[in-house]
Design goal:
The protein is mainly alpha-helical. Helix 5 packs across helix 8.
């Protein structure tokens, strides 16, 4: 079986499911229909379905066929899954839960980075900040640089669980940045906080780094709460005026 056929089929099916064209609990088309639509063999379809089962997006059972599972069952630390969701517009609750995840992980990772970053990693974080500052006029380039900056900080935490999560966390963070960067002047307002984080890690100042990181996350939360005020009310939070 060609890996190209397999990869392309997984990509098409994953994106199609994430688009909401087939709802949780609904059954996929029979294999023959998918084969005809995608122009691939049943073997390719079956292997692609196995891949999506492993990602938590599908469930296969006797008599019920192949059904789409609820998003809460999907592997949201899988880079492909996050990408498919992002392509089709993330559920608002997903974005707010992502902010909660950032509050949980990032400040601690920054504190550890202040304590544990190697000289090489400190230089990489400083270089990532410079790239961020240089891309201020280009939103897409800024978001790419932002993702690399935060990935470098997470890697410098030297926690093996966080390090294993870096690719997925980077993809999740990119989603958060994409939402917050739509606000005019937001990039310029957050840039100094990135410098605070980079300089705190360089000077081994954990308190400064944690403060800057938490302030950065709360700015993102404020931006999102203004964009999705109805969500904030539902979650019992206060919307800023």
């Amino acid at each position: 079986m060609s890996n190209n056929y397999h990869s392309a089929t997984v990509e098409w099916l994953g994106s199609w499911i994430a688009s909401g064209k087939v709802q949780p609990g609904e059954t996929l088309k029979v294999e023959a229909g998918l084969c005809e639509e995608l122009g691939v063999s049943r073997t390719v379809i079956r292997e692609a379905i196995k891949t999506l089962v492993a990602k938590g997006m599908l469930d296969v059972g006797p008599k019920v066929g192949t059904r789409v599972t609820p998003v809460r069952s999907w592997n949201l630390f899988d880079v492909q899954v996050v990408g498919w969701l992002a392509e089709n517009g993330l559920p608002e609750s997903f974005v707010m839960d992502l902010i909660d995840l950032r509050r949980t992980i990032e400040p601690t990772a920054v504190r550890w980075a202040c304590e544990r970053a190697t000289p090489k990693q400190i230089a990489e974080i400083q270089a990532a900040y410079q790239a961020l500052a240089a891309s201020l006029g280009d939103k897409d380039e800024y978001n790419r640089a932002d993702k690399l900056f935060h990935e470098a900080v997470l890697a410098a935490s030297h926690n093996q669980f966080i390090e294993r999560m870096v690719p997925a966390l980077g993809a999740l963070l990119a989603v958060s940045f994409e939402v917050s960067s739509t606000v005019p002047d937001e990039l310029g307002l957050t840039l100094p906080l990135h410098k605070e984080i980079a300089d705190a890690i360089a000077s081994r100042d954990g308190a400064r780094g944690v403060w800057a990181c938490m302030t950065l996350i709360e700015r993102a939360a404020l931006t999102i709460s203004r964009r999705y005020p109805e969500l904030v009310v539902l979650r019992g939070e206060q919307t800023a005026p």
